[in-house]
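Progress against Task 2.4 (sequence-to-structure conversion) is shown through the following example record, which the project officer requested during the mid-term review.
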Amino acid sequence: MGKLAQVRLRPDEVAALETVLVTLEPASVSDALREGLRRPAREAEEIKAAREIRGFYGEGGAPLPDGVTAPTDEELRAVDEMEW
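Structure tokens generated for the chain above:
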């Protein structure tokens, strides 16, 4: 069962919503707003999973699979500097 939610939007948020509606053409304003919740909901699930893993394995993290070596500091820095 769904739940009705009411939101007060600032003028800049209304403008952003109007841009979304014109550009992406969702079926409804509700669809556009629901889509806006999907990303933070997914991120929250990822954070929850990471906390559960950390709670289980401790601060050392999960063990690496057999045959996989830990990345070097140089490799980690290179990944941090990558642009997607």
